[in-house]
Amino acid sequence: MPNILEESEFSLKMDFIDGRKVKDVLNEKNYKYIGEKIAIEISKMHNNDIVHGDLTTSNMIFKGNEKNNEHHIYFIDFGLGFHSNKVEDKAIDLYLLHEALESTHFNILDSIWAIILKTYEKNYTNAEKVIKTLSSIEMRRRYTKKH
């Protein structure tokens, strides 16, 4: 966890996270591991009623220690983030992540998405409702795209 160095009403200054964007490291070899890490971190946010608002692999930093095989995912750019206990808001977070994965990691989309949902279900207390709402959102979007 980065240290908070300075905070004010509208800004937060913290340690630099020396890592790489998940967008640049995610591939066919590591998608299972990284997918689980992503889902665990999303679950932590959602359990605390934090909605990111722009969940993409460009807004995630992958930092690791190769010597002890310890890796972390850090979310960045909370400019669209907010607090909410609404199931719909959390489902939209997941929907946006799916859209991002579809556009940048389409070759592993189905595999990583299954892992993300399974891990999210294990770690987020209200996952069943969120995933049901996610399905509803996907159906509304499909209808909108066709007409």
Number of helices: 5
Question: Briefly, what CATH class?
Answer: Mainly Alpha
Order of helices and strands: EEEHHEEEEHHH
Please describe the biggest sheet, giving its number of strands, its sense, and whether it closes into a barrel. Answer: 3 strands, antiparallel
Number of domains: 1
Uncertain stretches: none
> What is the CATH topology assignment?
Transferase(Phosphotransferase), domain 1
Q: Radius of gyration in whole Å, from Cα?
A: 16 Å
Any idea what the CATH architecture is? Orthogonal Bundle
Give the total of beta strands: 7
Mean pLDDT, all residues: 90
Strands ordered across the widest β-sheet: 3-5-6
Strand content: 15-25%
Given the helix and strand composition, which structural class is it? alpha+beta
Distance between the termini: 45 Å
What does this structure look like?
It is a single chain. The protein is an alpha+beta fold. It has a single domain (17-146), classed as Transferase(Phosphotransferase) domain 1 (Transferase(Phosphotransferase), domain 1, Orthogonal Bundle). It contains 5 helices and 7 strands, in the order βββααββββααα. The chain is globular and about 45 Å long. The mean pLDDT is 90.
